[in-house]
Sequence to fold (81 residues):
Amino acid sequence: METLAESVYHALCEKGIEVLYDDRDERAGAKFADMDLIGLPWQLAVGARTVDAGTVEVKNRRTGAREELPLEAALERVKGG
Fold:
């Protein structure tokens, strides 16, 4: 069975969006810090809280704005820039 994180990854790839999927066995804070160093424009976070709500947390790294969106809406937000 595919996890929600894997579904997000595959859906982004299918839309032609370059993705860095961080599935390391690290704490979330360490992963977020590493992504900040890399400087990716968008951050999508999938966790127990968002899975239960049926959403994905989307962060625009340029503005710092965060929101929880259903998967399709999150994909459109990232695709739209």
About this structure: The mean pLDDT is 89. The helical segments are 4-14, 28-38, 48-53, 71-80. The radius of gyration is 12 Å.
